[in-house]
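Example record used in the benchmark description.
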Amino acid sequence: AVESDKLYVGYNAAGNGLVEIVGGDASWKTDNAVYAGHKGTGEIRITGGGTLTSSTGLEVGDRTGSSGRLVVDGTNSTLALGGNITVGDGGTGELLVRNGATVNAGPYAYIGNAGGAGTITVDGGNLSSTRVRLGNNATSLPGTMRVTNGGKVTTSSGVDFGFVADCGHITATVDGADSVWTSYGLSIGTSGEATLTVFNQGMYETVAKVTCGANGTLNIEVSNNDMVDVGSEFANSGTVRFSAQPGLAGGTYTPITAASWSIASNTVALGGVWDGSAHEFTVSDAAATSPGVQAGIDPSTTQRIAVGGGLFVGVQPTASSATINLTATATGGALLTALQAALSSEEYVQGSFDYAVSGDGYTAGDEVSLSYKAEGTWDDVKVWHHDGSAWSELEPDDLRVGGGWVSFTADADPLGSYAVTSSVKPAKPAGTIVILR
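Model output (structure tokens):
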């Protein structure tokens, strides 16, 4: 056991430090704050049941130019704080809580403060705090929070995504069966730009009001009922976007439940129809086609197209009978060569299609949902678009990675070509013969 007044890892600008607290008998207790990356680079790892306790708070990436990382990994591995967590407080910070580990924060967990950028990932772990705030001031850079793989986040008070105007774009996701974020109230984009995406059987629940503000977007990739459970009012003056999970059975779903509703703005449905009175999302069966073969649908009745086994396309419904003709052709030739040239030696094309869309049910620039069968993780998946002249990397604010699929919303005019890449080398088909020479 170690006791100290403070803990600095990476104190000086030139510093590069690592502290590991490993095993059930390993503990470190401080009377004052813990810093992972104060002015330099610092990392703290708590694993195997180790414990780090501070009477005050934690700073990860504390000053301009600093870089900090804190990993809490494994059952009974614990970080317990009497004060706030700030991830990206001027510098760049990352907090990773995984595999049954626990973080108990004090009053606030901040992501992005004083010009900093931060990421918190709760991957099968547990995090609790009185309040969570992403984008705490106008100089904050983009901030990210992910709850995945059965992770649990509990905030006894509210959650603010995009707390102040002009902060960097805020992105939060809840992904995977048994991944649950529980809070007392939620604000999305009431000041700064913010996006919350819930998918793949993830769940956000709150007993108090949910407000999706003018700069907010709530994305729900519908996989089941009750994905957002609101014990009070659900109020939207921003954008709520519904899409259908790849392979989801046709039928009617209730992705949001609320005690009352106030929807004054934009609701988008892709791959199904949203009924604003019944608060139901009806998913159509998918029309089936093959790469390079045109599919013709009437979007008043059918809003999904399955292209072989590797692509789902979701379109917006029309109020009356119309036509959409879509052809998705696997990218090849010079276009594919140009994409591969833009990748590093450790990146691979998971899927790439060239799109041709016509018909009176589609207007160039309309949003469509694209889901590619692809392997990869949040850290290495990239989405690319070719506008007719060059490939460029995109950062979709509704990116979904999981379950063997990568999904996002596309709205280019014209749609052009979209590709998904990652560091996972695609498996060769069974029966492939490789000749070496």
